[in-house]
């Protein structure tokens, strides 16, 4: 069976129907769009982030000219993660944007597609460690289509791996020159909003993480994507009682990525490196687990 390496797989079916589930949901029985979306439970490691649970979900629908058609607020999902949305099929759909776990945006602030994709968050409304998730697709059609969508986290995660070495002690880690805000939806070149400021985060340890189990410390930092800026990481500690500082760079930070700081002894000194990989935690989800169901 073909495997799909995506953290969230969304099965989407759009069909033109001649009837509705209820009169309230379908004032006009002819020619309506019905969306059926399923977000399967994560599988694999079992160490999934609490933020990965979809608590709130909004959908923004735009026509082929980028004008807002409909905003579905706080969409309810059943226990299987299924939702259904209805639209007047006489209007051609140009794009659909999904926004999960983000504060409600007033309708008068999103009149066009540009209003939404150019909207940014900031520290006053959403910090990186409480990341939200997004997904979107474009389809200028009035017929039946089927798409697979992947939800993307708005932030990236910085982890620390020290191995199990009793001679290595870590006092603190600092990451600097990181963005304090982000666009809600990804932009080309991973660009940042014009009013972005670059800041510094520090994590201090009461007891050295290197003296614990030797497992990777996950969620050391959560950061927004950095555009073309280089982030700087400094690790302060000791090896065999001798003070040490390790400086590392992350040339580009992209949303929904993992950056793992790895420290290991080489002779009497500590060397460091940073591993970059897509944030795929939750394991592989096979196509058979998508449970696609066509509405007819």
Provide an overview of this structure.
It is a single chain. This protein has one helix at 113-117, and strands at residues 3-4, 10-17, 32-38, 57-63, 68-72, 82-88, 93-100, 120-121, 133-141, 145-149, 152-153, 156-161, 168-179, 182-183, 198-204, 217-223, 231-239, 242-250, 257-266, 269-278, 285-286. It has 296 residues and is mainly β. It has 2 domains: 3-154 and 282-289, Immunoglobulin-like (Sandwich); 156-278, Immunoglobulin-like, CATH 2.60.40. A 5-stranded antiparallel sheet has the order 5-4-7-9-11, with no helix packed on it. A 4-stranded antiparallel sheet has the order 6-3-2-10, with no helix packed on it. The chain has a 4-stranded mixed sheet with strand order 16-12-19-20, with no helix packed on it. Strand 17 (231-239) and strand 18 (242-250) form a beta hairpin. The longest helix is centred in the middle third of the chain and has 5 residues, at 113-117. It is elongated, with a radius of gyration of 22 Å. It starts with a strand and ends in a 10-residue tail after the last strand. The relative contact order is 0.20. The model is unreliable at 1-31, 40-47 and 282-296 (pLDDT under 50). It is found in: Fimbrium. Belongs to the bacteroidetes fimbrillin superfamily. FimA/Mfa1 family. One of its GO terms (cellular component) is pilus.
